[in-house]
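pasting Transcriptional regulator, AraC family for the record, 220 residues
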Amino acid sequence: MVFTFEDGHQETSEKGSCILFPPTVYQDYRGKEDFFNSFVEFQTDQVIEETYAIPCNQLFQPKNIQQINKLIQKINHESLLPQRHTEELIAAYMTNLLVLLERSFEESIPQPQHEHYQLFQAMRLKMLVNCEQQWDFSQFSRELSIGKSQFYKLYQQFFHTTPKEDLLQARFQKFFYLRSNETLTIREAAFQSGFQNINHFNRLFAKRYGCAPTKYQQEQ
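structre below
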């Protein structure tokens, strides 16, 4: 299958590949011929990347694909034929699934890069969880004791996106979350999500979603 990501770049997945899409993220994947895929849609109050070391929007190749497929089948079975304690059982299956995916992803990282990856993952998690703050990517490269160009190269290699795009996506996700309770105005939600200029926010929003924030939410 060929995946097209938000920044326009494409990747071809191998058989058995996995990817975790967060809410509101553009999804475009197509098979070169007939294909079969297993998937689970779920909601959680947790920040997945804070609890599990699984990056979003990144293809990876798990080794335990049979276990993963069996768990997805169990979740599907419980959803179709609910019984007593179905919700608790599905939650347990989902925890098991995410733990397996986390371990598979860590095992897929080449050993020489593993130390760098762990530092990048911790830095990235801090940035995404606190996306409303103003972050200096040059400071990140200094803290990691690497050059600026190497920082961007490794970030792209590890997470298949740029730090700027990653941060922007996190801010939009937070904006949608803040607007979901309908107590904040668009301006207030944008500022609390890290956008310092409402006009700049409106331009970025229109470029990404094809319309103004007010029109987008009216159509949802």
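The chain has two domains: 2-107, 113-220.
The mean pLDDT is 84.
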